[in-house]
Prior knowledge:
Blueprint: E1 4-8, H1 13-29, E2 34-40, H2 44-48, E3 55-59, H3 69-80, E4 87-90, H4 95-103, E5 109-112, E6 125-127, H5 135-140, H6 161-174, E7 182-186, H7 198-211, E8 215-220, H8 225-235, E9 241-243, H9 251-257, E10 260-264, H10 267-274, E11 279-282, H11 288-291, E12 300-303, H12 323-326, H13 330-340
Parallel strand pairs: 1-2, 1-4, 2-3, 4-5, 5-6, 7-8, 7-10, 8-9, 10-11, 11-12
Amino acid sequence: MLKRILIVKPSSLGDIVHAFPLVSSIKSFDSSIQVDWVVNSEFRDFVGRNESVERVLSFPRSSWGKEGFWTRFLSFANDLRKTRYDAVLDAQGLFRSGFLSRLSHSSRVIGFEDAREGGKYFYTEKIPVPAPLHAVKKNLLLLKPLGIREKFTEATFQYTPADHARLDEILRQSGLDPGEPFILVHPGAKRAIKMWPSLYFSELVRGLENLRKEKVVLLGGERDAPLLDEIRTRAGTENPVLPGTVPIDFLPLLMKKAVLYIGNDSGPLHIAVMSKTPTISFYGSSDPSRTGPFGPSEANLVLSDPVECSPCGDFKKFCSHQSCMVGVTPGRVMETIRKIT
């Protein structure tokens, strides 16, 4: 009988969202099963908002190579071993995640046959992966050895009235009145190769200001602040800007307030899809059949330019021309928006 299951999915933000159906499927099978999660420290609060996750174990990945890492790591390892897990599911598929999975001392460590960096050598059970397969579907393969059938249910997040008030205040400070409808535009991404041109974003923002009555809000992390300022300056508008002012764990709450989300292949996109906010996203180097929006296609439109070399790979870091992105013009995006509104 299964009592405790550990999911190892340390990063990144979008990948974590794609692993949430693992939790909902386990809980649908048997709500009494305790589900814990190993995640990188910066995503601890985000995963902790998921009502179905009992305990979040914070791996100090950002401290690697810095003073105090080993002290933090030993504390993490001790916490990991406090619970005896009936099964550990490595949904990351790397050497590091395989090592952390084995560190739990569980007798069942389940992972993918195609795990990279030798991660599969840590597993007691290896799952073959048919290709191509969306990341969500791939993750759910980990449940088969446990006799758990996939069941898609909406992830639910815990927010208090104080949390709602805090987000309202953040939006108010950015220039949005409480309850005012807005469109979210997220121009950043983890890798530059995934980014639609900033000049295009400026043209899009200017066009949206003329087309729609809702305010256009520019969203990004703290490191995206110069990019957001550049886009707003080029657009010649005074759009509200959120440069890292919304905590990661508040993003699901923010997305539910937006009437439309526009952005690159990135973590916030997948949170918007999960939150059932309509999305328009740009895909070039990465393959939408593997990492695209996991939701109704009519509500989550993917725009790309089918050049011969696209998609070139989810992990590629550089391209000299990015033709697949340049070919998706602001005019095409505006025409798409006109058709759906």
